[in-house]
Amino acid sequence: MISEIKKEAMSGYGMLAILPLLLAANIFVLARGVMTENPYLIITFIVGLLTTIVLSIGFFMVHPNESKVLQLFGKYKGTVNTSGLRWANPFYSKKAVSLRVRNFESGKLKVNDSAGNPIEIAAVVVWKVIDTAEAIFEVDNYESFVHIQTEAALRNMASAHPYEAHSGEQITLRSDPQEIAKLLQAEVQDRLVKAGVHVIEARISHLAYAQEIAAAMLKRQQAQAIVAARKQIVEGAVGMVEIALSELSERNVIELDDERKAAMVSNLLVVLCGEENAQPVINSGGVYS
Description:
- This protein has helices spanning about 10-35, 40-55, 130-135, 140-160, 175-190, 210-250, 260-275; strands spanning about 10, 60, 65-70, 75-80, 85, 90-100, 100-105, 110, 120-130, 195-210.
- The protein has about 290 residues and is α+β, with helices and mostly antiparallel strands.
- The chain has three domains: about 10-95, no CATH class; about 100-210, 2-Layer Sandwich (Tetrahydropterin Synthase, Chain A), CATH 3.30.479; about 215-275.
- Strands 7, 8, 9 and 10 form a four-stranded antiparallel β-sheet that branches.
- A hairpin with a 2-residue loop joins β3 and β4.
């Protein structure tokens, strides 16, 4: 693998001061050659002018959070990170690589989770280039490589975990966003390390059941919510019945035998657990009549 080589390029301001002097010297040589009709001076002027033009090609600008990758006839010579006006060998080819933090959101992917349910999932990835040589020479197009490998990592991660817990799974896509984000970041980073890219953050931005099963899964979630609510209501009602019986016994309000206690418990549970408002009924007879 080709690793980044730091290279210091000469400040462009020094060369910017030298070039006008060279140009003035060339004009002086041309004038002398014309006045003296000396062909050698004219040839010297032509060579000097071409040299000045070639030297001017060596100027390049490095912006903040940017690098320039230098190559000489196809051979990697180094990377310039120092911002400002710089000058280097005019025959160097110079390719700019941004070191800024970038992010993108993948498209909505349709995949099957570990339980086989079709889901829609998308992710946001924050990344930056940390090795310009690997980014330029190890992959064909590092930006396209980041996008494609991120989608592949997202598919692989989504298929390894269920959308939500059904059989006591440890990590689910819906209930454990922090753990899933760490797993996704590690998965994407592992695929992009060869491209000189560092993944700062990766998070799921969209997660839902696919349309063909969304209605059925919504009914399932509603049923689970109803069961959980009923369980809590029953637990509360039982507690209230226990308190009522205990208070009646401690204060000696009434002596209840087992049958009367059973009737009272039944009535209280019906009142406390029923969805409709209780309708009072006056019993003028005894419990046994």
